[in-house]
Amino acid sequence: MKDKILEALRNLLTVKFWKDLVIMTLGMLVASAAVYYFMLPSNLVLGSITGLSIVLSNLFAMAGITIKVSVMVTVINAILLLMAWFLIGHEFGAKTVYTALILGPMLEFWEKVLPYEKLIEPGQTSVMGDLWFDLLCFVLVVSFSQTILFNINASTGGLDILAKIVNKYFHFDIGKSVTVAGAIICSTAFAVNPFRLVIVGLVGTFINGLAIDHFTSMFNRRKRVCIISKEYEKIRSYIINDLSRGCSLYGVTGGYSGQDYIEIQTLLTQDEFASLMAFMKDNDIHSFTTAGNVNEVYGLWNDKKGKKMKKQLDK
Fold this sequence. Notes:
Layout (H helix, E strand, L loop, with lengths): L1 H11 L2 H25 L9 H14 L6 H19 L2 H24 L17 H21 L7 H12 L3 H13 L8 H26 L1 E7 L3 H11 L5 E6 L6 E9 L1 H13 L5 E7 L9 H11 L1
Antiparallel strand pairs: 1-3, 1-4, 2-3
């Protein structure tokens, strides 16, 4: 127990902890703004815990009990956080505890700073004035925030917890997991909303899943670079020592000239690829280079931990 406490205290002093904390706070600030300004005024019930909270809040109102949506969001998220902690992992659970619990207060924050009623023009029923525009704005902003949080092993809470569980145990893509979990929750809106609004919510949930998959592929995109050059040793040395990336060497034979060459293959980020091209240009290295996008990479690749492990294996 003492060792776990000391480890937790050490984590509080790392740059990664504070960086992730800032990212989570800003991500939730943007997500809460999308919920408050686009979802609540138009009464959209997408496949989300906020949507479920709207349904439950309306049901309680019919029974004469007034419960604010922000309070309902906090209560439901608190229950789901226990599932995140035990079913997904302590890091994801701890981060989601923070993001989920600040969603309700952040909705209150936007209500105090700039109530959406002030943005709705006379004759309109929502901020954008059109249900589909509200849906589009909400989905694009929230899915981007969700992707940023998923990328640091966190989430916005609620539906994302259910989606992560589906992703972990059924091995669906994260976007498809959001769609499956969201569609089930969205169907609860038949209890309080017209048929048309529920269908709009289901469409929005589907688009949300597609947008998350799209943004996720953008975050994970790498360059697969193939280089044929007589000065391959200089290029290999730069990739390994300056970029701290691995590479593979292949013997190839030119189909036209019949000469033997060495081809270098490596996976780089966009910035690393640009640095490599600048290095080759500055050193006047002649080569034949091709590059293509790779959306998914597995193994010892991405973070500093992976690089350290790779260096240890090299030793």
